Amino acid sequence: MPELPEVETIARGVHERLQGDRIVEAWFGSHTEPFKTPPAAQASGLEGRRILAVHRTGKHIVCELGAAGGQSDGHSDAAPTAQWIVHLGMTGRLLVTTPEGPVAAHTHARLTMASGREVRFVDPRRFGRLELRELDRQSPFEGPGSEPLTISLTAFIELFRGRRLAIKAALLNQTLLHGVGNIYADESLFRAGIRPRRMAGRLKRAELERLHAALQHVLLQAIELGGSSVSDYVDADGVRGFFQLEHRVYMRTGQPCLQCGSPIRRILLAGRGTHYCTVCQR
Question: Is there a catalytic annotation at residue 59?
């Protein structure tokens, strides 16, 4: 599943290419699973609207939309009247292409833009979701937890106070920190020197300080490198990321630790494959 860096990379790419562009036509497929808002309602609500901005909230891509038929100079100073919200699920892709580009199997949505571009939502496993919110009668979308890139150290430490669950499970809990997934939890815990099974509520302040710094460093580095392409992930142009080349533990089971040479171990924790070094992480 795309995590925070991958979703951030896609959101930035879509924003750069489509800010100020207008949706001329919206087509949606026949499968019902991807649609939190009925496809007919999405189509009628999207057509004619201009994209003011595109950003990430947690693991969601949020397109801020202006009023239908509204004028814009390509900047985002107009007040949004609606939001189109894209969750990529496990295998979803949000691509910006041209009408002449080959249409991939499992394409569930196509937005035709005034510029001539197309936005396509592709999702083979149909775990992704598409939603339209009309802001005159619905509240703006907010993520379920705190934002990992901006949370203060004090607030970060407070999140885990008294938590009787493994720190890896706590990092994956989207109501605590939204956007962190399996890859970046493993990589951050390794860099902080903390074993994934440690009880979150028993970690010392110094350990949480290291984890706070490691998590933000890993996420920012991954964004800079375009995310991790270990499965289906590509950015808005269909290009793979490069952070998988920087993985120190994730999916390196049995390989020597890059710090101490000990074999990387894999266990199952919180239902997820978890990778760590038995020597470097305590």
Answer: yes
